[in-house]
Amino acid sequence: MMRVVVVSVMVLAVVGVGASSCNFNKCTDCIQTAKCVWCSNETFTGPSRCVSKDSADYVTFRLKCGNAIINPESDVTATEVDGESVQIKPQRATISQRVGDMQNLTMKYKHMKNYPVDLYYLMDMSQSMSDDKAMLTNLAYELVDAMKNITTKFRLGFGIFSDKIVLPYVQTVPWEELMKVCTNTEKEESCTAPFAFHNILPLTNDTAQFNEKVGSSNTTTNVDFPEGSFDGLMQTMVCKTEIRWQDDGFRLIVVATDAPFHIAGDGLLGGITEPNDMICHLDSDGFYTHSDKLDYPSVNQIHDMIERERMNLIFAVTATQESVYAHLTDQLPRASYGLLAQDSSNIVDLLSNKVYDIVTSVKVVPDIPIELQGHVDVNVRALNCPSTPCSDLKPDDEIHFLVSVKVISCPKDESFWNSTILLKLDGRKEALTIDLFLLCECQCEKKNTVTSAPECNNKGDLKCGVCECYEGWTGQKCQCEANSESGGDSTYEFQCRPDNTTTDVCSNRGECVCGLCVCNTMEEPKKIVGTYCECTNFLNCEGSDGRICSDHGSCQCNECQCDEGWTGKYCQCNNGSQDNCKPKG
């Protein structure tokens, strides 16, 4: 059953705004600043059509403007679907929000019993891992039993890797000669021809088949110490159909090895210059066909594919490689490592503990489009669990997350004013979808325009109470020709000064054209605005460290307006600790 929920939202101002900070000449510019409102009444006679709701002039402004005040209100609605298999509520939310507002939304997660798990065991098949392969064969049934204690919806797959089939990674002598060297007659073991990666068993719930495939797999030989695990890992992630990854559930890859790994650039040693293309290249027998054509993947490529395909990685490595894989897992999302015994005899405990930690944990991760980053901030905090991620969850446990959405500024590109943000359950398919509509424009500039308006001497359009002059005309009522000498005549200069106490025209930051200040254009992000070009977003706001408002506020009309929790002329003082604001000596 689907229902629409109107969510009660507390709308908070992120930044305080002074009266002079709202000195804009266009409605859209006005409402893109926190707390600023616009008067679209054509007969308005106040000093400025754009004022702050916090200013002392607001009461008079409201009386003069009447019901023509433009002040977009932020709101949110949420859509919920009920059912036993539903893990998150709501599933979708629609937020309309203007700059300076912050809205809170509660997201609920219910932990499900027997959440599906796919585990693909990717094993190093160099000869040094022969004991580990034998141990995995012996413990296969025990491993499956341990996994089924965590979830009954468990599938297992098996693949092996070695290295690229070119010098200097492997011997390229005829296989008959190489087999004499690598076959271990003492242990009655034979080895197989070198290969890069082989998908031996796609994901299945057939434990006997897994046991048989592991037992019948032969080791191989290579020359250099690092292995081609990244080739195998990339193919395991991108070959979704061949590996048989299911859409729902956890996707786990276990990489078992006693060696470090080759990375992008190492292929040059074998004359391979083509970068890895992150595409599936398996033949009908499951062998990787492009090991001699494509370079090894980079760490960044592995990182991106983990995110794209929602993978979880567990590196099961020997103690000699701990520092290598500790550093690697620090650079990858949802990746961890565990130490193998010399013969992998602890593999069941290692994997069951790692898988339990993954399956019984939850974390919400905001996915914000790159075009909105820096303009919108999303914070998620668990309300009823002490750790991040929330861990050791039992079936039917419910976690409440407080989602806070804050709009900092409007993107320049209007196409990004309507966007979608995802709040993903890390490593899972489920997500809360937020349709975000930024209130960055005045509808009266589009819908209620009067073309060739008499109020504009028929030389411009009336939009939101002000004239937008046609090309060649300027002035408050489009009464002046833009190229005429009267545009810069001193007769009009008194209109470009706030009062008679100053002789500065347009605050010395612009040009007086037909009685109106045209402010100088600065290199982004610097701006000069205001009726008399009196306001900037940079003057008097730069601290000794060169940062505007210490990165803890915004510069509004030559004055820092600090974020909550920060004070001082340059927002340099944290309310929680005043030590750095005390005079020295």
What can you tell me about this protein's structure?
This is Integrin beta. Belongs to the integrin beta chain family. It holds the Pfam family Integrin_beta. By secondary structure, this protein is an alpha+beta fold. Among the domains are: 98-111 and 362-431, ntegrin, alpha v. Chain A, domain 3 (Immunoglobulin-like); 117-359, 3-Layer(aba) Sandwich (Rossmann fold).
Summarize the structure.
The chain has 585 residues and is of the alpha+beta class. Among the domains are: 98-111 and 362-431, Sandwich (Immunoglobulin-like); 117-359, 3-Layer(aba) Sandwich (Rossmann fold), CATH 3.40.50.410.
List keywords for this structure.
585 residues, alpha+beta, Immunoglobulin-like, Rossmann fold, 6-stranded mixed β-sheet, 10 helices, repeat
Topology:
Layout: E1 2-6, E2 12-13, H1 27-31, E3 36-39, E4 50-52, H2 58-65, E5 69-70, E6 75-81, E7 88-89, E8 92-97, E9 101-110, E10 117-124, H3 130-148, E11 154-161, H4 175-182, E12 197-204, H5 207-216, H6 229-238, H7 240-243, E13 250-257, H8 299-308, E14 311-317, H9 322-330, E15 335-339, H10 347-359, E16 364-367, E17 376-382, E18 398-407, E19 418-425, E20 431-438, E21 460-463, E22 466-469, E23 473-474, E24 480-481, E25 510-513, E26 516-519, E27 528-529, E28 535-536, E29 553-555, E30 560-562, E31 566-567, E32 573-574
Parallel strand pairs: 8-20, 10-11, 10-13, 13-14, 14-15
Antiparallel strand pairs: 1-6, 2-9, 3-4, 3-5, 6-8, 7-9, 9-18, 11-12, 16-19, 17-18, 19-20, 21-22, 23-24, 25-26, 27-28, 29-30, 31-32
Helix pairs in contact: 3-5, 3-10, 6-8
